[in-house]
Design goal:
Blueprint: H1 2-24, H2 31-65, H3 71-88, H4 92-102, H5 104-127
Pfam families: FxsA
Region (Disordered): 141-192
Biased composition (Low complexity): 159-176
C-alpha cells in the first residue's frame, strides 16, 4: 500500500519538475507556451476519452444484447475513467499515462496485465478460488495436512486413508476418496 501511495505522490512531483524544466531550460518554449501545450493536450485527451468511452459503451451494450458478460469492456471503462482523470491533471507525465490508458492499442496489454496480476488474484481471494477454478478438492477445508483424526469421523473407527488433503492416493485419486465405497447415483427415470 505504501508503494502505491509513493507512486501516486511521485507522478505529480515528476510533472511539476518537468513543467519547470520545460519552461526554464528551453529557449524556444516560454512559460505561456508550456501552459498552452498542457491545456491543449488535456483537451485533445478528453476528446479521445469521450470517443473511446462511447465506443466502449456501445460494445458493452452489444455484449449484453447477445447474453455475454462484458468483462473486458468494463475494465476498459475503468481505465478510461482513470485516463480522463490523468488528462485533467496538468502535466506531461499524467498526459502520457492518460494517453496510454486511452488508446486501444496500448490499453489491451495493460488490461491483460491488470486481469492477470490484479483482478483475478483479488477475485480469487474474495471467492476462495472459484474465479480461476483453483478450488479445494480433497477432504474438508481447514482439515490441514493431518488428515482424518485417528478415531475417524464422529468418533468411529478410521475408515479413510491417512494421507492429508491435497495428496494423491496410489491410484492417482485425491486422498479421502475411496473408489471401492463410491456409489453411482442415476437420477434418470427408468421404465421397468
Amino acid at each position: 500500500m505504501l508503494r502505491v501511495i509513493a507512486v501516486l505522490l511521485l507522478i505529480p512531483l515528476l510533472d511539476a519538475l518537468l513543467l519547470v524544466v520545460a519552461a526554464t531550460q528551453f529557449d524556444t518554449l516560454s512559460a505561456a507556451v508550456v501552459v498552452l501545450l498542457v491545456v491543449v493536450t488535456a483537451l485533445v485527451g478528453m476528446l479521445l476519452v469521450r470517443a473511446e468511452g462511447r465506443h466502449t459503451l456501445r460494445r458493452i451494450q452489444e455484449k449484453l444484447a447477445t447474453g455475454e458478460v462484458p468483462t473486458d469492456e468494463l475494465v476498459d471503462g475503468g481505465f478510461l475513467v482513470a485516463a480522463g482523470a490523468f488528462f485533467l491533471t496538468p502535466g506531461f507525465v499524467t498526459d502520457l499515462l492518460g494517453l496510454l490508458l486511452a488508446l486501444p492499442i496500448t490499453r489491451a496489454p495493460i488490461r491483460m496485465a491488470a486481469k492477470r496480476w490484479i483482478i483475478t488474484p483479488y477475485l480469487d481471494a474474495k471467492a476462495q478460488g472459484f474465479v480461476s477454478g483453483n478450488v479445494y478438492v480433497g477432504g474438508f477445508p481447514g482439515q490441514g495436512d493431518a488428515g482424518p483424526s485417528p478415531s475417524g469421523p464422529a468418533g468411529g473407527p478410521d475408515t479413510g486413508p491417512s494421507d492429508g488433503p491435497g495428496t494423491a492416493g496410489s491410484d492417482g485419486s485425491p486422498s479421502g476418496f475411496d473408489h471401492d465405497n463410491a456409489t453411482d447415483i442415476d437420477f434418470e427415470e427408468r421404465d421397468e
